[in-house]
Amino acid sequence: MKDIELLIIGAGPAGLAATIEAVRAGVSVTMMDENPRVGGQIFRQLHDGFVATDPKALGHDYRRGQILLAEFESVKSRVNYLEGALVWGIFENNEVAILRGENSRSVRFGKLIISSGAYDRPVPFPGWTLPGVFTAGGAQSLVKTQRVMPGENMLLVGSGPLQLALANQIADAGGKVVAVVEAGRIENWSKLARASWGRWTLLADAARYGWGIRKAKIPLLRNHIILEARGIEQVEEAVVAEVDTDWRPKSGSERVFTVDTVAVGYGFVPSVELALMAGCDLRYEPLLGGWIPVRDENMKTNLPDVYAVGDCAGVAGSLVAIDEGRIAGLAAARALNRLPETATQQRMRPCRKRLTALNRFRAVLDAISLPRPGLHELSRDDTIICRCREIPLKEIKKALQEGATDLNEIKRRIGIGMGPCQGRMCGPPLLEIAAGEKKEPPTNFGYLNPRPPLKPVPLSVLADHAEL
Amino acid sequence: MVGRRIEKSIQRGQPFEIEADGKKIVAYQGETVATALIAAGLRTFRRTVDKNEPRGMFCGIGLCFECRMVINGVPNTRACQTLATPGCRIETQEGRGPLEDFG
Question: Cα(B15)–Cα(A212) distance, rounded to whole angstroms?
């Protein structure tokens, strides 16, 4: 089995930053990502074939990404980068099983930094499985990096500033946003301004987005939520209602929009499957997206050789991810005796300073866009919760009535979370449904335990798995 | 037609033909299968096993597996993660796909 001094999983902002610092300290780094290009979801680069003629139009994140990518470029020759590589299992004795193309093999790491990122919070509501309903991230990937309009008449529903960003990108590219439906209370800009003191780029983004959608004359419905998407073969209309502070609809406030596309963005949930499979302890933190790995100030988990950074360890965005990545890269270099203690502390200091400032801003933003209970009550008995195995809400309720006391027991009874997505789509809503039905805190119900393979791997490949 | 390509701020690669359920459509170098289909106004990528319901692209980052199709004869291939290549054959996946016939 091949030994790797430092393995970094995920080449988004956090993984790139960790790689940059560790390589500069002289560590031998292998970085891997499922995608062919580095950058992660937020700094996603264009595929070969596309050429950006006006990078400005591709968004502020794209340009910020170029700065980090340039920094990575300066150390790249010293990094062993495995692109298109999927981790499908993490086992005892620091063994990681990696699938690349048709080949699967195991490696052993000295230290491991997990930066697996986050994904759009899955929010079930009647009609959410219809073609034409996308996650906000899915719609954004089409507009930003594939340059295709997801639809003709688009409704953006969700909470937080990202859907304003998406509305701007669509309008700028000549698409039609019928309305932006915002569940949170974003009118409190002055509070946001005070919190973002010293973080002008973030505030400027928010202001620019707000200004952009006014210029494009896109209606912004505050304190509104989507109740249902309707259609036979695809989305034809969407029902929207005004909500109270708990995001519960006010009766009589429903209105119907004729749309062919709905993009749903209620924030993100951390991808904790890798951390779980490594054996990390989790804690529940709603403001950071749900279950996240327990960490110390150096981003180290409860396991002595495993670090977790960026959105997979608490959703906080790319700027936080970069500094967390730098700190973990330095901490791993220190632990591997590649960097003296004083130099480590010296290099960590500016990162910690920036993180403190960013956290202040984030606390306000999180409080505004944190999902409220009404968001988890939109499904009807026949609404599909598990998209893979077509399991409706009523089967979950039945399992709970018949005595299931945690998510894994519900999984064993009705097979939820056992399809190809491995519970990534149904896990977060299942937790909220169980907590709501039983009127108990979500922590009572735990999380779905991932099992290898983490993503579907052909049996023929598993049979040939080499323990090189 | 629902989808369409954005020309602003970008230059596309070479165009070529691909086949979607027997019909020729255009794709450009760098586009995923999902993008080429959406640009051609095609949104239903598969039909579900139990209820025969239509499903299309959802998450766009390879996690949800809703966009699985039969691509060049291989079922359960994610359209959002697969680059279109000249002449590739794409079929709507019915249920679990053609392999179940052999089971």
Answer: 33
Euclidean distance between CA atoms A94 and A392, whole angstroms:
39
Q: Examine the domain organization and report whether A129 and A258 are in the same domain.
A: yes
Q: Over the stretch A285-300, which tens digit does the pLDDT of each residue have? A: 998 999 999 999 999 9
Q: Do A130 and B57 touch (CB under 8 A)?
A: no
pTM over 0.90: yes
| Topology given in CATH for the domain delimited by B15-94 | Ubiquitin-like (UB roll) (3.10.20)
Q: Count CB atoms within 10 A of the CB of residue A70.
A: 9
Establish if B80 touches chain A: CB-CB under 8 angstroms. Answer: yes
Which helix H or strand E contains A431, and what residues bound it? Answer: helix A427-438
Q: Tell whether B86 lies on the interface with A, counting CB pairs under 8 A.
A: no
Task: Give the C-alpha distances (Å, rounded to integers) separating B92 from A121, A384, B86.
Answer: 27, 21, 18
Please write the tens of the pLDDT for every residue from A230-251.
999 999 999 999 999 999 999 9
Full residue range of the structural domain in which residue A99 is found: 2-119+269-339
Nearest-Cα residue of chain A relative to residue B52: A390
Q: Residue B12 and residue A147: Cβ atoms within 8 Å?
A: yes
- What is the predicted ipTM? 0.95
